[in-house]
UniProtKB/TrEMBL annotation:
Belongs to the 'GDXG' lipolytic enzyme family. Belongs to the type-B carboxylesterase/lipase family. This is Carboxylic ester hydrolase. It holds the Pfam family COesterase. InterPro entries: AB_hydrolase_fold (IPR029058), CarbesteraseB (IPR002018), Carboxylesterase_B_AS (IPR019826), Cholinesterase (IPR000997), Lipase_GDXG_HIS_AS (IPR002168), Type-B_Carboxylest/Lipase (IPR050309). PROSITE patterns: CARBOXYLESTERASE_B_1, LIPASE_GDXG_HIS. Residues 2-451 form the Carboxylesterase type B domain.
Length: 461
């Protein structure tokens, strides 16, 4: 099956429910002078480009959580290649007209992940009559460190470029450019919330779904410039795009690894004493450029994105992902819990006491509950309450045998991809729940209504 895009023809692979196209460029390779520069359209090619195999991924180092195989969600690591600003497209029928379109932004703490990971298979969405697009974007130093002479928020700019590509090309895949739902999880959800508050996203999507992320996980320019300086010092160069362009990708990944080590990065707390990532990642979107001229949460409260229908939600036990498999949940002491939160919060002891620390509860349980609220649930609640348009909120509650309702647990259910997710969901996940959740996302993309009441939190699982 061949489809014509604005850059040239692409050949897809027939699947049981339609056709799949992989590794289709939406922007030129970010190399040479285009490194640390805003994305530009993909150059044209002659003939038919084979789009039947997954393309390269953004440069990254494969990271694991001890005792847990997350490859279904994050992929197997870096697939090298310069042309990684690409999309994968699943469509029921390229010859169809005006099908609803969902565009997915993957998570990975802004340092890893890929839109072509197995869990993000689009078969269920095509079976429901929708087109799915998954996006690769720049990560880490390449995507979220401001450098002199370079552009800012490059990862977000890539996502905007992908959305513009969708507007120009999705009709050729059977989709409706006027009915696009942007959705993402974790870092992808933060991205979606930021774009909801960005003036540059106007007209690029009609609906949004924010899964375990929100608009508050952003940094000011001063914090990220400190990160740029420390990264540059580790490389022995100035924090300038010209200097960084002369370095290899491996050198930048080595420097990135260094700042990710405990104590390897700068103090990234803001003037209020909070580290907005709570230690999960130094790399976050930056407030103060044309992408985010004001804090996206403030912009949303002031009416940005009011014409966009919104779903936002969390998993019930988000932070279990980081504490369950490692065994830390059972051995963490009260003192250790306070010390860990103190690195991100000015009143760690007070916050944890409010959740029962020092009473008849394990410190690990208290810490997971408090951090689930601080990192995820509180921000999602604020996002839904601030949004001036129609909003729906959910909480995913189904508990996997080993991981509970942890961060990312909803993903195999959203994509109805349980068959490739056994390492996460266990041996007997409820297939009916996966069909229900996937149908709700598909219905929302088509109509703006997932089938839930907008006035209360919907409990899934």
């Amino acid at each position: 099956m061949i489809v014509r895009t604005t850059s040239g023809d692409v050949r897809g692979e027939p699947i049981a429910t339609g056709v799949r196209f992989r590794g289709v460029p939406y922007a030129a390779a970010p190399e040479g002078e285009l490194r640390f520069a805003a994305p530009v359209p993909a150059p044209p090619w002659d003939g038919v480009r084979d789009a039947r195999e997954a393309g390269p991924t953004a440069p990254q180092r494969h990271r694991t959580i001890p005792g847990l195989d997350l490859s279904a969600v994050v992929g197997d690591g870096w697939r090298t290649g310069a042309e990684y600003l690409t999309v994968d497209v699943w469509t029921p029928d390229p010859g169809a007209e005006s099908l609803p379109v969902l565009v997915f932004v993957h998570g990975g703490a802004f340092i890893g992940g890929t839109g072509s990971a197995p869990v993000y298979d689009g078969t269920a969405f095509t079976r429901g009559g929708a087109v799915l697009v998954t996006v690769q974007y720049r990560l880490g130093v390449d995507g979220f460190v401001p450098l002199d002479g370079g552009e800012t928020n490059l990862g977000l700019r890539d996502q905007l470029a992908a959305l513009r590509w969708v507007q120009e090309n999705i009709t050729a895949f059977g989709g409706d450019p006027g009915n696009v739902t942007l959705f993402g999880e974790s870092a992808g959800a933060i991205s979606v919330a930021c774009l909801l508050g960005s003036p540059l996203s106007t007209g690029l999507f009609r609906r949004a779904i924010v899964q375990s992320g929100h608009a508050n996980m952003v940094r000011g320019r001063a914090e990220l410039e400190r990160l740029a300086r420390v990264t540059a010092d580790g490389l022995g160069v100035e924090p300038a795009a010209e200097a960084f362009r002369k370095l290899s990708t491996e050198q930048l990944l080595d420097a990135q690894d260094a700042v990710l080590e405990p104590g390897g990065g700068p103090d990234l707390r803001g003037e209020d004493g909070l580290d907005r990532s709570y230690g999960l990642s130094p790399f976050l979107p930056m407030v103060g450029d044309d992408v985010l001229p004001r804090h996206p949460g403030e912009a949303i409260r002031a009416g940005a994105g009011a014409d966009v229908d919104l779903i936002a939600g969390t998993c019930r036990e988000e932070m279990l992902l980081y504490f369950g498999p490692t065994g830390l949940l059972d051995v963490l002491t009260d003192e250790q819990a306070v010390a860990m939160l103190s690195a991100s919060h000015p009143d760690a002891a007070g916050v944890l006491r409010g959740y029962g620390l020092g009473e008849d509860r394990k410190a690990g349980e208290v810490f997971v509950e408090a951090m689930t609220d601080l990192v995820f649930r509180d921000g999602v609640k604020e996002l839904v309450e601030s949004h001036q348009g129609r909003s729906f909120r959910y909480e995913f509650e189904w508990r996997a045998p080993k991981l509970g309702a942890c961060h990312g647990m909803e993903l195999p259910f959203v994509f109805d991809s349980l068959a490739v997710s056994a390492a996460i969901v266990g041996d007997r996940p409820p297939a009916e729940l996966a069909r229900e959740v996937n149908a709700a996302w598909t219905r929302f993309a088509a109509t703006g209504d997932p089938g839930w009441a907008a006035t209360e939190t919907t409990h899934l699982g």
